[in-house]
Amino acid sequence: MEKGLYTVFVPNKKCNLSCAYCSTDSSDFLKNNNPDTDSINKVLSKSRHIIDTKILKIVGGGEIFLVEQFENWVIKQAPYYTSVFILTNGVSVCEKRIDFLAQITNIHFGLSLDGHNLKMNHYRFRDSKATFDKVMSTFNKLGQSSVPIQINMVMNDLNCSYFIDYIKFLQDTNYALNLHISPLMYKNSNQRKIQNNAWIKQLETLLNDYESFSDILLPKKYYELLHTYYTDKGIRNLRCYIPFFMVQLFSTGELTSCPIVWNTNLGNILKIDPNAFNLYEQKIYTLLNQPKPRLPFCKNCISSYDIFNLFMDGQIAIDEIQKIRLFSPPDIANRIADIKENLLYNQKT
After folding, report:
1. What is the dihedral of CA 315, 318, 319, 324, to 10 degrees?
2. Dihedral of CA 333/339/342/348: which sign?
């Protein structure tokens, strides 16, 4: 059995938003699926015979709170993982469900929110102030639950000039101790492209005064990587180990090697014989782990998951990663260190 860090689980395709940069419709893995509790429990249980992971990250191909009674399988699966992360767009989240989930001691929330005003969220909510207000209400409810929260901010031309303002807004809330922000760089054809000069200026301001913002940020080296990337015309040079840290699993049972681009189908977890299947020996892993990116998508890919690549490269220490609440438990830090040790050992041999 392989050992990784995350199982990134995609349970559904149903959504209540039509974000301009969404890539879900390009996936064939979510066609005609309407998952029920029993089938999801079966898929996740089977996956643990293939790969042992510490974090169950439930991202949804759509909106998880539209899956009826999903709390039932979350509470059943939670004991098998050190941490369970649930990502929501915040539109249809009621306080009762938050309170129920918050009682699960290892739960973490992620909220997709591109800024602290309606304009910054235009590609998410268009001009619907009512929708924006709903999501801000969810933000406050999540904050009041005292559960750790990751804010996912999709960078675009309308919010890239206000990244620092958004950080300051989050720092001024009553929930700052439980928050961190993760800027996301989407590269699909629908993306409203970042204005490079404005974004680079924001990154330079942040790097020059990083300590003032560090309490809710990813490690500094990640922002240095972003700065280099955007001043170097979006060319990636960092070797990628992300598939060895996480596997992506769909409620239909399909398994893929990368959580960023839904690429090669490695098989269906319900049909794979775990005694005859070695995940990391699949050819796609060698291709994705080349010293320099070879696949077209990989050549300009950059994401917050790159903190693990920076860790593998010796640019980030484990204690910097542990400052993020999701990675603070000792057994998660140990797993991250073990993955690095095993990968570097295998490269030498």
Report:
1. 100
2. negative
pLDDT of 60: 74
What's residue 21's pLDDT?
81
Nearest in space to 206 (alpha carbons), one of 188, 218, 196, 190 = 218
CA–CA separation, 69 and 57 (whole Å): 17
Note the residue count of the chain: 349
Q: Quote the CA–CA distance of 249 and 43 in Å, as a whole number.
A: 9
Dist. CA 341–CA 250, nearest whole Å:
29
Does pLDDT of 190 surpass 50?
A: no
Structure pTM? 0.94
Average pLDDT over residues 220-244: 92
The answer to whether the CB of 107 falls within 8 A of the CB of 78 is yes
Cβ neighbour number for residue 158 with a 10 Å cutoff: 17
| CA 83 – CA 210 distance, rounded (Å) | 28
Contact assessment for residue 282 and residue 257, using Cβ atoms and an 8 Å cutoff: yes
Closest CA to 74 of 40, 117, 112: 40
CB 227 within 8 A of CB 204: yes
**DSSP helix/strand/coil, 304:** coil
Predicted confidence (pLDDT) per residue in 132-186, tens digit = 999 999 999 999 999 999 999 999 999 999 999 999 999 999 999 999 999 998 7
Domain boundaries, the chain: 2-348
Residue 1 pLDDT exceeds 70: yes
CA–CA dist 145, 143 (Å, integer) = 5
pLDDT above 60: residue 189: no
Task: Report the CATH number of the 2-348 domain.
Answer: 3.20.20.70
Contact 125, 167 (CB under 8 A): no
Give the three-state DSSP class for 1: coil
Cβ distance 62 to 92 under 8 Å? Answer: no
